[in-house]
Amino acid sequence: FYVNNDATVTVSNARIDQHTLTGSNRDGGGFYIRERGRVFLDNVELENNVATRHGGGFRAESVDAYVEITNSTIAGNITSSLGGGIYNNGGTVTLDRVSIIGNGSATGGGITNGGTMLIRESSVTGNTAGFHGGGMHFDGGSLTVLQNCSLVGNDAGSFGAHLAMALGPYAAPA
Q1: Contact (CB, 8 A) for 64 and 88
Q2: Distances from the Cα of 114 to the Cαs of 19, 20, 45, 60, in angstroms?
Q3: Torsion over CA of 112, 114, 117 and 123, rounded to 10 degrees?
Q4: Residue 103's closest CA among 9, 1, 30, 3?
Q5: What is the rounded distance in angstroms from the CA atom of residue 156 to the CA atom of residue 134?
Q6: 104-144, pLDDT tens digit by residue?
C-alpha cells in the first residue's frame, strides 16, 4: 500500500502477508507512508513482506507521515538495508501492544527509527541485523520512548544485539 497526500488508511482484523517489492519502488514491503499519509492498524498481522531497500514491514517517510498500530504483530519481514520490520524516516509512529518478531535487515532488524516513536507495552523479540541494532536502531536526532517493553533474543553481527544508537548531526554538544 502506498499512502500519500492526505490519504488515510484504516485496517482492522486483517493479515497483510507476502508482498515483495523489487526495482525502483523498493521501500515499504507492506506499507509506504509519505507526505501527510496516515495509517491506523488494529489487530493486524503484517508478516513476511520484503522490500529490497528499507522497511520490510513498512516505511514512514517525512515529518508529516503518521502511523498508529495497536494489538498487532509485525513478523518475518526482511530488507537488505534499514528496518526489517519498521523504518521510520522522519515520521511519527506509535506502537501499542505490538509484537515485533523475527524480522531481519542489515541495520535495525526489528526497527530503525529516524523520527519520533512511542512504543508501549510491546515486545521486540528474535530480530536479526547483519551489522548493528538487531532489535532496534535509533538514528541521531530521533526521539524514541519505550514504556513497559521487552527486548529478548535479538542478534546483531557487529554490535547492539538488542539496541544500537547512532550519533548524528543532532548530537548534543559536549
Answers
A1: no
A2: 24, 23, 23, 10
A3: 10
A4: 30
A5: 5
A6: 999 999 999 999 999 999 999 999 999 999 999 998 889 99
The DSSP secondary-structure symbol of 66 reads E
At residue 25, the pLDDT reads 58
What count of residues does the chain have?
174
DSSP code at position 170: T
Q: Which amino acid is at 35?
A: E
Q: Are 169 and 140 in contact (CB under 8 A)?
A: yes
- Nearest Cα to Cα of residue 133 among 170, 99, 159, 103: 159
How far apart, in Å, do the first and last CA atoms of the chain sit? 43
The pLDDT tens digits of the residues spanning 28-72 come to 788 888 888 999 999 999 999 988 888 899 989 988 899 999 999
* Amino acid (one-letter) located at 53: R
Say if CB 84 and CB 104 are below 8 A apart: yes
Triad 174, 166, 101: Cα angle to 5°: 145
pLDDT at 46: 96
Residue 4 is placed in which grid cell? 500519500
3-class SS at 159?
strand
